Input
Amino acid sequence: MRDVRFLVRVERISFSTPPALLKRFDESLRMLGYEDRSKALQVAMSNFVTEYAWRKEGGKPGAGAILLTYNHESHGVQDALTEIQHRFRSVVNSTTHIHLDESRCLEIISVKGKIERIQALAKLIMKKRGVTQLKLSTVTM
Output
């Protein structure tokens, strides 16, 4: 059987980067077991395109996760997060709650639906008092 990897056309590119960033990139490559920069850059570019696809494909369906940390001692934050998720139940599939320490919690919200609706959910959560970090990761379907 023929190896199809050699049938795909590739483009050569060149770019400039600060030496310190390249050094950190190369260290990450070694740590992750990549044998060359090309494959790692292809993966990074693919992740970048996927991460920001919602900007042009907001009406398309997607799936992903919203990871957020918050201080549960902040007045009303848990109730507010629950209320928001109920308002967005068309895209919220499930939520996992993890206690990080005495005052901080991590929630992972599994989402599926229109990317623009998922983005609206993340923006609303991000604005809530007590939320300290939020990361949205989506893929288009």
